[in-house]
Write a structure and sequence with these properties.
Blueprint (H helix, E strand, L loop, with lengths): L2 H16 L26 E4 L6 E4 L2 H11 L6 E9 L3 H11 L16 E10 L2 E9 L8 H17 L2 E5 L6 H9 L17 H12 L6 H12 L5 H11 L3 E2 L16 E2 L11
Parallel strand pairs: 5-6
Antiparallel strand pairs: 1-2, 3-4, 4-5, 7-8
Helix pairs in contact: 2-5, 3-4, 6-7, 6-8, 7-8
Organism: Acidithiobacillus ferrivorans SS3
Keywords: Endonuclease, Hydrolase, Nuclease
GO molecular function, one term: endonuclease activity
Length: 281
Amino acid sequence: MSKGSRRSESGAIARRLKEGRGQGSEKSYKPWLTVRDVPSRGLSVRIKGRKTGRVHHLLSQLELSYFLMLDDIRASCVMDIREQFPLTPIETTLEIADMLSIPHPKDPKTGEPIVMTTDFLVIVTSADGERRLARTLKPSADLGSPRVIEKFEIERTYWETQGVDWGIVTEREIPQSLVGNLRSLQGCWDADNLPAVAVPQIERIEAELHRALSDKSIPLFQAALDCDGRLGFENGTSLAVAKYLIATRRWDIDLHQPIKTEENLHILVRGHGSTEMAPER
């Protein structure tokens, strides 16, 4: 390996550190890797977080599913979500790999060691105070790979030395109906995404929709269309407000049951409840 290649790799690490990658918290946090740093097959996504107020960089659809669970208002114990978190300094993981007699991950082009990352470092609160949870996302089909297990062992040992709870999350731990609903509600919590005409009328629309849905024979889409007609809105306005009400938990529903607009919507509670989705999977 040429000295130029070694300088190039160490230079990339130094550049990311100088940019503040892997540093900060909440809105000021910058992930070590962004969607532009990693080759994509159309699976990477940038998404604005409700809890941090910043754009998150997610490198797989599995990461997106888990993120939506963490960022949902019902996961009220989650205070901060830091994706693509670096295991730095790199000397620590190099020492761990050497101790375990496991090859450290390298850049395939330069052959130089790279900074390892954990998909999510989650900050949660509980009765015992603030805790950090490190979570790695991986399809269950990949768990049979010896190399995957080797890298997991480096990662697990790193977090063990930091006193941080580390774990693996696969698609088996992610409720598909819940995530399907969260995907359909993605961004609906942000009032800026509502039709402008609806924003000052949210309370009126909510009352009209709730009254209509009290008739259990009326499906959600019909209640929304009727509401649009009565209030003189374009079709789709009241349905957008209904999704906003669900996403902000003004309407509390069972998100483990698929939301079907062709069916009546069963509202459990009007207003904010206290149900919490635990992220410790």
